[in-house]
Specification:
Elements lengths: L1 E5 L2 H23 L8 H23 L1 E5 L2 E5 L4 E4 L3 E10 L7 E9 L2 E6 L5 H14 L6 H9 L11
Antiparallel strand pairs: 1-2, 2-3, 3-4, 5-6, 6-7
Helix pairs in contact: 1-2
Length: 165
């Protein structure tokens, strides 16, 4: 097994567009505010926020997740590697963007040894990655929490019951 996952170009483009728009709007407004004005702080904070979002978007554009028989490896500017035999926890969390929880995204968090990596559901093949990671974790006897089980069902994945259930 040797699979590579990456964030789709459309999602990267849209995030980049959001970052540039935010930097332009709030950075432009900051240019017209007196340095003694109280508005410098909120506008400066928003410029920093959109700047950080732009950096995150650039990192995602260059990042690949490679899954093989040894483990999961993150390639790109920030490299991480987690061996399957070192995985300590696998969690899937849902983050809602609406009060009624009808919209949002999921995040897969994997920790093992001294490394950790998080992948969100905009990744191409997210469901396949979750299936592989949870399969490896379960084959090594790692317990899966109830929240992760619930979110797996929402993704259309079924996990076998825990030993002792």
């Amino acid at each position: 097994m040797n699979l590579t996952f990456r964030y789709p170009k459309k999602a990267i483009f849209l995030d980049g567009l959001r970052a540039v728009t935010g930097l332009t709007v709030f950075g432009g407004a900051l240019l017209f505010v007196s340095l003694s004005s109280v508005m410098v702080w909120p506008l400066g904070g928003l410029v920093l926020l959109f700047g950080a979002f732009a950096v995150r978007t650039c990192l995602r554009h260059q990042t690949r997740y490679v899954v093989d028989d040894i483990g999961i490896h993150t390639t790109g500017p920030i490299r991480r590697s987690i061996r399957w035999d070192a995985v300590q926890s696998v969690r899937i969390r849902f983050f809602s963007t609406w009060r009624d929880r009808s919209s949002g995204w999921m995040q897969l968090a994997i920790t093992g040894g001294s490394a950790a990596t998080k992948v969100d559901s905009t990744l191409d093949g997210f469901g396949d990655l979750v299936r592989i990671v949870l399969g490896e974790a379960r084959s090594r006897g790692l317990a899966i929490d109830d929240t992760t089980r619930h979110n797996c069902r929402a993704l259309g994945l079924t996990l076998p019951p825990e030993v002792g259930d």
